[in-house]
Structures are given as C-alpha cells and as structure tokens.
Amino acid sequence: MMEITEGSHAIAKIVARCRPQVVSAYPITPQTHIVEALADYVADCKLDADYITVENEMSALSACIGASAAGSRVYSATTSQGLALMFEACFNAAGMRLPIIMSIANRALGAPLSIWNDQQDSISLRDSGWLQFYAEDNQEATDMHIIAYKVAEDHSVLLPVFVCFDGFILSHTYEPVDMLPQEDVDKYLPKFTPYEKLDAEDPISFGMYATPEYYHEFRYEIDRAAKRAADVYRKAAKDFAGMFGRDYSGLIEEYRMEDAETAIVAMGSICGTIKDAIDEMRDAGKKVGLVRIRVFRPFPDKEIAQALAKTKRVAVLDKNISLGSKGAVALEVKDAMYGKTIPVLYYILGLGGRDVRKRDIAAIVALAEKGEGDMFYGLRKEVL
Amino acid sequence: MGLAVGCRAKPGKARDNRTGSWRVFKPSFDRGKCTKCGMCMTLCPEGCIHQTEEEFVEPDYTYCKGCGICGEECPGEAIAMKQEEK
Amino acid sequence: MVDKSLELFDSGHRACGGCGAALAARLVLKGAGKNTIVVSSTGCMEVFSTPYPETAWKVPWIHSLFENAAAVASGVEASLKKQGRTEKVVIMGGDGATFDIGMICISGAFERGHDFTYICYDNEAYMNTGIQRSGATPYDASTTTSPAGKCSFGNKRPKKDMPQILAAHGAPYVATASVAYPADLMQKVEKAINTKGPCYLQVHAPCCTGWGFEGEQTIAIAKLAIETGLWVNFEMIDGKVAKVKKVVRKPVEEYLKTQKRFRHLFKPKRQDAEIAAIQAIADRNAEKYGIDIKLKKE
To answer: What is the ipTM metric for this complex?
Structure first.
C-alpha cells in the first residue's frame, strides 16, 4: 500500500513486518526515529519482540550477538559515533557468522562533531565482514531490509548486513513508499531457521579462539561467504522482483550508460540528484551516465569494469575520505579498472552534510572532461 | 571438509589434549588410608578423579597434571605426591 | 535439585596445574547443572578452555569479547524468553572483565533486570596478559603494572567493592564464595540461578602463577584469605547481608607470607606499617560483616 511517510518510519514499519524477535538499540541522531517507532510497536503489541534498551551501542550489537546465537532473528540500527563504538563487535558478529541486520542512517564521524550526512561511518567498516547495501531512496531502503534478512540468513552466507541510507536526506524525508503488507513479507521471508544455536539439548561452543593453525582458514571462509553472497543477493532480489515488481537484482545500477563518454560512479541518495543532472546534460548533448553501486560488499568489481569499459573517463564521487589516501569507493573502482587506460578521477564531496546540487554534478563532469580531479570538490575559499 | 562455521565446536574435543604429559609429581592413592570422603574428587581442577565400583578413588593419569591439590587437601593423608620416572 | 555429580567442564583444558579458576568453572557448572547456557568474557578461563576445536564446555557456551559478556547474556536471555525456553543464563567473567572493562555493560544489564547469574572468578589481576593490576587487585600486591620497588609497595588502592555496587543496582541476590568451600560455592550458584533477576556471585579463585605459590597450595591459600578476614564469604538478599562465614581470625601476615606478590612486605626488610595497613583492611571487613567468632573467656 502506498503511504507518504518519513523514511525512518517506513523502515521501522517494514522491519517490524520482518518479525525480529529481539531488537536492541541505542538512540543516536539521525537513526532514532526508527527505534522509537519500533518501541511504539512493541508497546502496542504490534510487534512481538523483546526490546532491549541498552546503555550504549556496543551493548546494542552485543545483545544482538547473544540473541542471534540463541536462535532469534534480531535487529538493530545505528549511525556514525554509535557504529564507531560498535567497531569491535562488528568484526566479532561477522566472524561468528551471525545474520544480524542493522540499519545505518549514514552520518559523518567526528572530529569535528557533525550530525549530518556522509558515508564515512559504514565505509570505515568495509573490512569487517558485514555486507553493505546502499539505498537511493526510501522505497529501496525499505525493501532492502527484507532482502537483507533473506541474504544474511541464507546458510551459504551467514553474515550480517548493514542496510545504509543517507541520514536526514532519506531518514527524515517524507516520500511515497509502497509498503508491503504483512502477508507479502511473510510469503517472501520465512521464519528464521538458525544454522546452529545455543541449546542445552545439543551443546555447541560459539566464539572459540583460533590458533595460527586455524585463524587463516577461518578468515578465508568468511571472505568466501561474503563473495558467495553476490549470487545469493542476485537471486533474492530477483525473487523479490518476481513477487512485487521492484527489481534490485543488480549489484550495480546503470543509468544512461549505453553510449556514455563520462561515467559517474556513486552510492546512495546523491544518485537521484545525479540522474536529474545527467538528464539535463544529455538534453544539452553531453554523453554522461551513472553507475550506482547498490551493493558495496561484496564489491561488484567485474560488473563495474564491464559497465565502464567503453567510457572515456570515470568520475567517482566519494562521500567519505580514507585520510592520507583517496576516497574509498574510488580506490576500489581504480582496482576494478586496473590494466585499462581509462582515467579514474575522484571527487570528495558532501562531507558532514554539505549539500550537493545538480550544478555541482555538472561542474564535476566539466572538470573530468578537462582531466581535473583527485580533489576535495567545492572547498571554501579560505583553505585554497 | 571445511572448518566449522564461525569457529564453533561440539563438546568432547578437549580430551584430545592429554594434559597428563605435563606432570612432574604423580599422586599415589593409599586405599588403606582412604576414607572415601571424596574431597580429592571435588577439589581436582581437572575433574579427573573418579570413584571406582568399591567407592575408592582413582585419578585418570591421562589428564592429571600433578598439581598436588588432592594430596595437600586429603584429610586422611592418603595421597602422596611422588616424582615421576619418565 | 541439580545433579552435582555431573562433570560439565571437561578434562584436557589448558589451565595451569592447581588453577583456582579452572576449579571454579567446574564447581560452578556442577552447581548450575546442564540446563545452562554460559556466556564467557575474554580472559584466562576463555583461553584455557576453548582453543578451536578443543572446547572443555559440555554445556552451550558463547564468547564474544572482553567487555560485553553481560550484554551478550542480555540478548541470550531475551531470546530464550521469546522462544519460551527454560535454560538458565550464567556469565563467567574474570575480575578484569567484571571490575574494569565490562563495568558499563554490567551496570546496564543489572539495571535492566535480566534474569541471569553473573559469576566473577576473581583472581585479583589480569592473569591472561601476564599479571597486570585490575580494580580487584588488593592493596600492596605487586603486579607487573603495580610492581613493588624502591619507592613503591605495589598496588596503591584497595579492592573495588563490586558486590555492594551490584547490590545497589537492586540485585536480588549477591554473594561471595571461595574455591576453598566447594559445597558452599555450588549451593550459592544453585541459589543464584533459581533467583529471578540479575544475581551476582564473586568467587575467590587463587592464581598460583600470578600470586606466586605452588599449585598444591591453592585451597590452603584461599582458606587463609577467609581465616584472616581479607576475603569474606557472605550472602546478600535484596541488598541486606543475610549470611556470613564466621571465623576465628588469624593475623593477615599468615596469608601474605604465602605469596610472592606480597614478598616485598617481608624482604629484604619487614614493612610493619604496610602490614598494619593491610591488617586494618581485614579489621574493617570483620567489623562490617561481623565475621569474628568471639571465644569465651576462661
């Protein structure tokens, strides 16, 4: 049913329809509306879950680890500093192969303190073993949670997932969203069947330590599962498209790439703006296209290389910076394009909530055409 | 065959590690003095002292590390620690 | 009643010979029984009992991190509740995990009132990393980060009073126990797991390697701690002391002399003022908990 609703509330409603049995979260802007809404559902008996009001984010994820290992479907949400506080538990949850779903309302990391959007938080956890999906709008953000459970809980994957959407830009924006009713969600997402669980009838030790004889292989197994997740995702998203009509089955989305000379690569809500800017540039005769990365982990390097193969230049827009190096997305796109002669330029932009408009996209395309890039875009004059 | 998913294991494998090889002093049990009180069984950190059918106690030397708690705590002084010949 | 003859902590674990913590694990599981899920924090016990794939735990067991066992247990308990399952949740953390790094997590979980039993095996320092001081290290104990030296008598602070802190959280059952009194320890574990709400049990578990004594002395030294008043075995129900182990007290130096961590109080020169300060700690414990058995005058 189509509803005009705030992004956070749409996500909360759909998460509740995924029937998590344990929810554990801690308030942090701009994620808070989700967990407030879930608390309301529990208070009104609309969601049959145990809601653990923990004392910080580290404990939020830790409680999810315990509940997941004990055999429950679990949910949490966080952002920015909260995710940073979870850093240790993030690696732990993935290493323990627990299919936890966590919403990330993407936000900048301090210092300086900023409550506004960029993607530094989840990007900084790129090596943790969590799968990472990035939504462009609230419809996609909402649907992706359902798909995320399906992928994470697949016994050939068993890895946790960040469902990422830009803080404020999506979380606090009212948009029409087609909300799948409970029966549809139930039809798509069956009851949680844990691969193994803590159970006195059949005792297992979870979270043992590995000596040098084994550690290497355990990390290999996690990596292999993360890579296997690409096919599992494609199938899960295809099934979703078959049932409900919305197709997210590409790990990337190509927009007007058919004859593009300049390709933009980006993730998240900025892609809506980019698509509008491309339409205008196309009208003016410029051959510009977009490759939107929907699934950042596992990284779709082959798809990206193929999509960019016939372009003349690539402009990667990074809402993050690996300080002292480059934008994290650019680094991976460059790797995907290794051995090709097409220049890949990166532009750091939109950090800490700095607005990115259509004219900025046009300006970046103009810079790329001149071969100018590898820069922080749009800096204030006093630092130049 | 791969490794267990997520570095997990079912019980039983600890027994592959035969800690009896650590032992320097070996407890020897004098049945004449043993009162079958069970103190040695209770206090053994290895849990490797068991009761026989006649209710006497017997350590499993496969795991006994020879710590000597049983000898020290035996109220009847029925357990003597002796350097082991290897 | 739990069947205390069951061995739920397997032989083959890698604890030092005479390890108080290994004995504590065995006795705790005997008291808790097999319908138990154990959550461990990182530490000596976790390491000596679970190198993959050699687990010593015959009950379901989970370890996540150093500081988060109480939160992991919160999640386990919530999940069991939702599934209508009956297993009891028992946390096993060392004193570092309990008194220091896990403190926020424990406070949060106790305040929320989860139905679990938190057991701290207290060996009074970070033993797994090589005997560094923790908030549970006693006054004047020499550790690798509070070494005795020309201008130091070792650890400068007395032990943090965790039982009182958790009683102040409204825990319905808080108790202390010692590996030297195994029947009492097992009974307290059984009582705690059958008390609804967050319960706390702190178990004195001497560490031969960290404290500096021969492994055979573990029980004797744990007994001396109680007989000198430096460790008090008590039970608190709803915040009030309900039961205390009374003793005919011995002077503290009988305990101190047995361990290398206090050797600097006797050699090269006897430090009377420091020994008197430790005696004063024992005297305060005795007064606070009323542990002294008054002998009748002839």
So the answer is: 0.97
